[in-house]
Amino acid sequence: MNKQRTLSLIGFWGFVIGLIIAVIVGALAAIAPAISGAIMPAIIIILIILGLIIGFLNITAKEILLFLVATVALIVVGGVFTPLKTFGIGAVLDNILSLIATLMAPAAVVAAIKALWAVGKPGD
Predict the structure, then answer these.
(1) pLDDT tens digits in sequence order for the chain, 124 residues long
(2) What is the CA radius of gyration of the chain?
C-alpha cells in the first residue's frame, strides 16, 4: 500500500470515529447531561484533533468546494430541531449536529486555507 493511500485511510477512519463519537456523546448529552458534562471538554478536544486530521488527510482540491458547502449547511441547521419536544428528540438531534459541526469545523478551516492557497499562488 502506498503512502498516500495509507494517509487517506487514516483520514477516513478519523472521520468515521469522529462521527461515532459525535452520535454517541450527543445522544448521551441529551439523556444524561451530568455525565456528558464531565467528559465534554475532552470530547471536544478529540473531535477538533480528528477534524484537523480529516482536513489535512482527506480533503482533496477537487472536493474542497463541495466539502465547504456541506460544512456551512451543517452549521446553519444547528438548533433547528430544538422545537421537537417529543421524546426529547430535538435535544438529541441538536446535540449530535453540534458535535458533528465541532468535528467538521477544523476540517473546514484547513480546506478553506487550502482553497485560499490555491487561489493565491501564482500559476498559469
Answers:
(1) 688 888 888 989 999 999 999 999 998 887 777 766 778 999 999 999 999 999 999 888 888 889 999 989 888 887 777 777 776 788 888 889 999 999 999 999 999 998 888 888 877 5
(2) 16
Please state the pTM of the whole predicted model. Answer: 0.86
- Rounded distance between C-alpha atoms, residue 58 and residue 113, angstroms: 14
CA 88 to chain centre: 23
Helix ranges, 1-124 (H): 3-31, 33-57, 64-76, 89-120
Residues 69, 108, 57, 42: what is their CA dihedral angle, to the nearest 10 degrees? -130
Domain boundaries, the chain: 3-120
Instruction: Give whole-number Cα distances, 80 to 5, 32, 69, in Å.
Output: 38, 21, 18
